[in-house]
Amino acid sequence: MTSTSLLWFRRDLRLGDHPALAAAADHNHRVLGVFVADDVPLDASGSPRRAVLARTLAALAQAMDGRLLIAHGRPRSVLPRLARAVDADVVHVSADYGPYGRRRDEQVQRALQDAGVEWVATGSPYAVAPGRVRKSNGERYAVFTPFYRGWTDHGWRKPARSGSGVDWVDPGEVDGITAHDPQEYARTVPAGMSLPEVGEQAALDGWRTFRDEALDDYDGDRDRPDRPGTSHMSVYLKWGSIHPRTLLADLAGRRSTGAASYRRELAWREFYADSVFHLPESVWTSVDPVIDRMAWDSGQPAEERFEAWRAGRTGYPFIDAGMRQLLAEGWMHNRLRMATASFLIKDLHLPWQRGAEHFLEHLVDGDYASNNHGWQWVAGSGAQAAPFFRIFNPLTQGEKFDPSGDFVRRYIPELRDVPGRKVHRPWELDGGVPAGYPEPIVDHADERAEALRRWQQRG
DNA sequence: AGTCCGTTCGA
DNA sequence: CGAACGGAC
Length: 459
Known about the structure:
The chain has three domains: about 5-125, 3-Layer(aba) Sandwich (Rossmann fold), CATH 3.40.50; about 125-155 and about 200-280, Serine Threonine Protein Phosphatase 5, Tetratricopeptide repeat; about 290-455, DNA Cyclobutane Dipyrimidine Photolyase, subunit A, domain 3. The chain is about 45% helix and about 5% strand. The protein is built from 18 helices and six strands.
């Protein structure tokens, strides 16, 4: 009997002649796909992001009846050789533009055509391919608003008919797939985690629900993590389950402010991808190096604060709820992404890359361009970022955007019995901070002043 | 896509 | 005396 395999490799392995391929054949394993992970940290286990990617790709591989080679983030010159090694005649490559080379799609396509291999690309699709929107003199747009104008003027094709590509299958049907990576990373999900459904149908269902029930209120509700005000399309856009042109076409006939705001958010995603296309190094290095001249914390106490931040144990309920949402769902509301990022950078004085790395590790929608440039926006090191001195107050943010405290109580069981907005200030409760929940690890007013001091004294 | 502080304005 | 506003960081 033939069983199926989804093989996982580290990027430093030579795949073409890897013994796992031969072993799979020896054991009558049909190779569904080969996934080469190098756009996520490799040492973390139980990453929900990789789990969602794995399910998405497994569903795709299943739909392609095993004729599929999935090589994500791999140097493209080896793809034809890989395709022959696993007897695949269709190759799936991610179409996003990471730091591994611009214009690679064209090179890949040519190489695969030469090898007689059919090529399909899904993953991180854009209405306008990164690099295409240019000023009249051919230079890139470095500022969002002019980019937005140029992007709109550029225009884009109509979306492909839904279902015209790959028919996605229920991920439940591919449960028999086993991972051969010794660490089984990406296949293991922490118990109790709830991950989004994968595939095109789930994306379309989610979109229609958002469009019909929340889009008109998007302007007002998008900043409210206690309400279902956002689309949750990021994971489907990231992994190519839905195309932004599908969403844009649906928005085109709508005049509401919500529709306009949402279109603008899609444009931000394309702007950041365009930025990475032109400046691949900006994924991990500050666009404006002024931030690098500041003093940042390191050493044991700093590592302990970093760990408290990651675990959602800073003592600031709004921050902790966001960080725990990330751990529980592999997703965090955008308002919390900004607030928790500000806290790491400006209250804990740690470099933005530390936080970006943690987010990429856990976010099911984790994307180099959007995530890392989002971090640079908060840090004040982006091309068009918020100024460094724009510092979020973790308490004010909570009381303003989660006024009833419902969001905090949803993610912090220690505070579940504290009613109303008082939940944002557990240290002021009669009887003190509830058992099991930490005191604030830093004083925000002190650390805000400290951050501004370091900003003033930068070299 | 922020916060803080000092000042002014109106109840 | 609190809301509103402007400038500074």
